[in-house]
Write a structure and sequence with these properties.
The chain has about 325 residues and is an alpha/beta fold. The protein has helices at about 5-15, 20-35, 35-45, 45-60, 75-105, 115-135, 145-155, 190-195, 215-230, 240-250, 260-265, 295-320; strands spanning about 65-70, 70-75, 110-115, 140-145, 160-165, 175-185, 210, 235-240, 255-260, 270-275, 280-290. The strands form 3 sheets. Strands 3, 4, 5, 6, 9, 10 and 11 form a 7-stranded mixed β-sheet that branches.
């Protein structure tokens, strides 16, 4: 691409004349399909009209974009450089359109919070109660989803915030609320939970009820046992956390779960708990946002409330682990 061509496209970012947007869409579609005939069908326009749009764009920017071959058309070197800029521009426009649709669909006071199902059970009730007290005008819309779905929903702006254990996002999008320690849980007053320090080595041979493989809690537990060379004996695998808690409380077995997920049952005396000593798995509990830009006031309020409630539960857990402190 010549220096003059580069200067022309750099002028887009400086507020210079941008080619007709429809022509840019036509160009990108022809480049994708490598055929004017197929692109015309996809765009629902006549082939001669599409050919004219491409010709007008070439005249406007002063470079040849395609050359013909026996199978259709191929980008020229200049055309490939132009496509890089055009694709970026089209993506920005599409992202802006999604943002506008999202704003129209939700009131200014609405906040869409995505939550992993296990955390929904553990944390939503106190969050909603506190939010109603400090900001009754905020409308909280809760969506339960897996970690992968939460990331996709954040990236597509279908939700504003996400609460989960560990999310693969940019660092400036994520706030780590705490490192949630995995505990041994079972029936209340069970001797296994009260007869002294519990270490991973002491759990060797203890048959456990654990989340199925592929779930984050299971991965952290397996890694912790492997690190100390202790065999992990799994008696039962369950996909959902709720049934695991019920089975452990009923004496059907023991489990290893983060304190956040069991705090309600522990505080109600329905479940016994022992904190692990020595190297123990910890899961990062994070609150992520859809954008690195400025948050709306309702979003900041929800972030503050979630942070406060999550850390309050952690303090309760610390007192239960160390009653004399």
């Amino acid at each position: 691409m010549s220096r003059s061509d580069i200067e022309y496209f750099d002028s887009w970012n400086a507020g210079g004349n941008v080619p007709d947007f429809r022509r840019l869409q036509c160009f990108a579609e022809v480049a994708r399909m490598r055929s004017i005939t197929r692109a015309a069908t996809a765009l629902h326009i006549e082939q001669p009209a599409l050919s004219r749009q491409i010709k007008l764009l070439e005249q406007e920017i002063g470079v040849r974009l395609f050359h013909r071959n026996g199978r259709g058309v191929e980008l020229t070197e200049q055309g490939a450089n132009v496509l890089t800029r055009v694709s970026r521009l089209l993506q920005e426009v599409e992202s802006a359109e999604q943002d506008i649709k999202a704003m129209k669909a939700a009131p200014l006071t609405a906040v869409r919070l995505g939550v992993q199902p296990s955390l929904s059970h553990a944390l939503l009730a106190p969050v909603i109660q506190r939010l109603r007290h400090v900001a009754p005008e905020v409308v909280l819309r809760v969506v339960e989803a897996t970690s992968i779905q939460l990331v996709e929903s954040l990236q597509s702006r279908q939700i504003d915030l996400a609460l989960a254990y560990a999310l693969p996002l940019e660092t400036d999008q994520v706030t780590c609320l705490q490192e949630d320690e995995v505990c041994l849980v079972g029936p209340p007053e069970d001797p296994e939970l009260t007869r002294g320090p519990v270490t991973l080595r002491r759990l060797a041979g203890l048959r456990l009820i654990l989340p199925s493989r592929g779930l984050l809690v299971r991965e952290f537990v397996e890694n912790a046992f492997a690190d100390v060379g202790v065999p992990l004996c799994v008696d039962m695998e369950v996909d959902a956390i709720g049934p695991i808690i019920e089975l452990a409380a009923a004496g059907r077995g023991y489990s290893l779960l983060p304190y956040m997920l069991v705090h309600r049952e522990v505080e109600a005396g329905q479940l016994g708990l022992a904190v692990l000593e020595g190297p123990a798995p910890k899961l990062p509990l994070v609150l992520a946002r859809a954008s690195c830009g400025t948050l709306r006031a309702p979003e900041r309020l929800v972030m503050d409330v979630v942070t406060t409630e999550a850390r309050a539960i952690r303090r309760i857990g610390a007192r239960k682990a160390s009653p004399n402190k």
